[in-house]
Write a structure and sequence with these properties.
This protein is mainly α. The protein has helices at residues 6-20, 25-37, 41-54, 59-72, 77-88, 97-107, 113-130, 136-149, 153-159, 163-166, 171-183, 206-215, 234-239, 246-249, 252-258, 271-285, 293-296, 306-316, 321-335, 355-362; strands at residues 196-198, 220-222, 242-244, 263-267, 344-347. Among the domains are: 135-188, no CATH class; 196-380, P-loop containing nucleotide triphosphate hydrolases (Rossmann fold). It contains 20 helices and 5 strands.
């Protein structure tokens, strides 16, 4: 049950307003933002349909709608929307980096690898149309991201030459330059590197620790590679420093075998609090009230079926959230029982852990800023 907030009061007011005037585009856009903040998936879909119907050239909303419909089980919808939006592009439009990010993510949906490659190539050609018609860095950065998604090493390294020097204030350019330097290093890949893997369950603070690791200077990925829109793969594990979310938690043993010097951060929260939070999250975001439904839900088909495998490993093979929590606890404790203390850190935001606990484990200085508290649930639930 969501706690009453100013945002929920505003949602109810907008819903009443739109009952009498369903063509009020500004109200639909505001409602979409509020639904998104509160992770109300069905509301997001309704609002996206309304915005796209009233403003067909809002490509950002069309692409978002394709993505969420794909997650809901309308297989291939993201790809169809991508193709439609590519056809709607014309060199007179003013593109934003956020729209190009949505194109990259939409291209990656579905389980057909060749279809993904074809979409990314079409996106690269579309980007070329806009060169000279807007900020140069926007299109150079976008091209680098597409080449990275295609795993085109030579093309990526050539496109990213001097990118940080040319745009020293562009965070994405800086990130791409850093990856290019590592990928082109004679020592790459370095399997002796001290990678960081965050292996808590959903709703245990993995987002907050990801943000904290970023503050500390680690190249960190949470759930997906935001530059390419894909799950981390073997190349990403070599290119980046830190990783978190349940796709990492589901596979931490093989990651330790790949990187023997890795360190692991086990994010935790009291079990009763966790059950309330995680059950609300999956009911709102995925539309399931019984965790066994995850195995057969359309959501499980995401990323070529990888989402289903992850949930099978952690959740859907159990009778209750409590048993899933207990199984993961036993799995982690058993695996790390004989490792040296510096290999595993138990970390709980809800019991007061923060910079001191994390930085002592990582042997680094504490930043002079509050510890991040990211991805707080609807109504600031914990």
């Amino acid at each position: 049950m969501l706690k009453p907030t100013i945002e929920t009061d505003e949602i109810q007011g907008l819903e009443r307003l739109l009952e009498s005037d369903s063509t009020d585009l500004a109200s639909w856009i505001r409602l979409l933002r509020l639904y998104t903040q509160q992770k109300r998936r069905e509301g997001v879909i309704t609002a996206l349909h309304a915005v796209v119907g009233l403003a067909p050239d809002r490509l950002d909303c069309r692409l978002r709608l394709g993505n969420v419909l794909e997650q809901r089980g309308e297989v291939g919808e993201a790809g169809r929307v991508f193709d439609d939006c590519i056809e709607r592009l014309n060199p007179e439009m003013k593109l934003k980096g956020s729209l190009l990010t949505l194109f990259i993510r939409c291209a990656q949906r579905g389980g057909d690898e060749q279809a993904t490659v074809d979409r990314l190539h079409r996106l690269a050609l579309a980007i070329e149309q806009f060169e000279g018609r807007g900020p140069e860095n926007l299109f150079v950065v976008a091209r680098c991201r597409v080449l990275l998604a295609l795993r085109d090493r030579d093309g990526f390294l050539a496109a990213s030459t001097d990118i940080e020097r040319r745009w020293p204030n562009n965070r994405t350019a800086i990130a791409l330059s850093s990856l290019a330097a590592r990928w082109s290093s004679p020592e790459f890949p370095d399997r002796s590197a001290e990678k960081i893997f965050v292996i808590g369950l959903s709703r245990t603070g993995t987002s907050s620790v990801h943000d904290a690791l970023g503050v500390l200077g680690y190249r960190s990925l949470h759930w997906m590679n935001d530059l390419t829109g894909t799950f981390p793969d073997e190349l990403d594990f070599d290119l980046f420093d830190a990783f978190g979310d349940i796709n990492i938690s589901a596979d931490f043993e093989s990651l330790h075998a790949r990187y023997p010097a890795a360190r692991f951060i086990w994010t935790q929260r009291p079990v009763d609090s966790w059950i309330r939070s995680v059950s609300t999250h999956y009911e709102n975001f995925v539309g399931i009230s019984d965790l066994k439904e995850l195995a057969g839900s359309a959501y499980a088909q995401g990323f070529g079926g990888r989402v289903g495998e992850i949930h099978g490993s952690l959740y859907s093979n159990h009778d209750s959230w409590a048993s899933a929590h207990a199984a993961h606890t036993q799995r982690v404790r058993s695996y790390f029982a004989d490792t040296v203390p510096k290999t595993l850190l138990e970390f709980s935001l809800m019991t007061g852990d923060g910079w001191e606990h994390l930085c002592r484990f990582l042997n680094c200085s504490q930043p002079d800023q509050p510890f991040p508290h990211s991805n707080v649930g609807p109504g600031h639930q914990q």
